[in-house]
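Feature request, filed as a ticket because there's no other form

It would be nice if the structure record came with a short human-readable summary line next to the tokens. Right now we just get the raw output. Example of a typical job, pasted below so the devs can see what we mean:
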Amino acid sequence: MLSALACNSAAMLITCVSIYVKVTSEKSQVMSRSDKINISVALCGQRYWCEVMRTQLSREGVNSAVIRPAPANFFKRLWWIIVFLCYYRRRFSVLHIVGIGSKVREAKWARLTNMLTVWHWIGSDVLKLDDVSSKAKRKLLKSCCGNTSVRLAVSDRLQGELAKHDIDAKVLGHITDKVLAACEHLPDVPGVLSYWTDNGASFFNCSLIFDLARCFPRIRFRIVGTAGNGLDAPPNVEFYGWLEDMSEVFRQTTVYIRIVPHDGSPMMVPESLARGKYVIYSLPFPHCEQGRTLDEVKAKLEELLEKREPNFAGAEFVRKKINPQENTARLIRIYQEGMANKSANESPVR
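Raw output as currently delivered:
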């Protein structure tokens, strides 16, 4: 029965591919006669950042939507492929993959559907290039370095790391308007903010945060992004889980702490600066204090908790140097240039 179902599914897939190839050829001919490239973007990958980008692109009048990644299950994946071939390729001209792993299912079908593929590295996903097998790595590099794709990195640091893997990526900064938050007064009662995910406590150095909390028992340490289930936290540590609106937590924050072994360009660092908060960060960033060890971070925190005036210099830096609207406009130009280059590299339709 499963064999018959697989055969029927394969037949459906072949039929869809045949129909799709014919329509794609007609679409290519129409596009070649048009001076203007109409952009419609399918965003796939890290859900939160896909939603952020969809919101900003929509504000600029670009048709975009977030689609779910291809499932691992064979039959579910087969249905995903059929939907991709019969629907997504009609609606979208660009597939933007946000957060890169070792799997390239989406990119394979995007190439078949004549879509421009944008590979967007956002942080620790770069480390996966070192973790995956050599075969998977070759497969990934072949997919992301072709003429039908564009490579993006969120920071100069990631761009340099990708270059070591022979991946030439353009740097695209923040496109979320959360970094435009207004500078605000520091709270009367000092507080500390940190972030980590449910499965990333070790990566975000939760043990160091707990040790800091024990060193400063009268200071509230607020953790967002996780509920803290199963963690043996000191009594002055509070977990808030995932918050859509961070305004109230930021109002109670004096210092934001982010101690990680590797990073891209985390939004909460410039957002904290924009709000006039002080930041202790394990990596170099303008107007942030740098620290990695418990002793280093403890000394910095002790000093910063005495602050009574906001971090005006940090807020001014973000206001002058980070422009989400300009970065969104640049992303749209990257789409346009990528589609134009893709068309130029394709063989003429006969």
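Something like this underneath would help us a lot:
Residues 2-32 form the longest helix (31 residues).
DSSP finds 13 helices and twelve strands in the chain.
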